[in-house]
Amino acid sequence: MKRKPLDMNTVAERLAEHGVTDALAVYEANKGKDDLPFEERVITDMVGKLAFYGSLSDKQYDFMTRLLKAIPERAERDALRKAEAETAKVIPADMLSGRVKVTGTVLTVRTNDSRYGVVTKMLVKHVDGWKVWGTVPAAVRGALERGDTITVEATIKVSDDDAKFGFLNRPKLVDHVKATTETTEAA
Disulfide engineering: 166 pairs with which of 68, 85, 156, 184, CB 3.0-4.6 Å? Predict the structure, then answer.
């Protein structure tokens, strides 16, 4: 039995029920286009799947809401990232010889399957703005989170494409400070 897609009026009603009516306008303006920005591409795909399958999960509608909010903020976000990249310093030459201590804020922690098994990597930003990517030391694997401050001892190899980005080799944990989270209690 062949599935019959929903008509666009029904799609509009389902989007309105979840408070994401703007998603239909994004879909109509971008369907069939290539090279869309991330938010528009995902929203267009989700609305198309809603029309084809007939429903989306609550989490998908929540994600669509976040994407719709991100579209008008994109120019400001991109300008901040560009300014941050321009003010970042180049990795100092003294950091490139032998094992050195690197301290910075964890921006990303990502676990991937590789040919060596499951590997957990981190992106760390130094106070001077340069960034390094490398394996999370075993001592903090599973405990390291975005926003934490970490100090490792490792060798650094600068990227061939960007002097403000490098790769950590064989990082050994020196110190790990959890990010503080402020909680407000209702009185």
Answer: 156
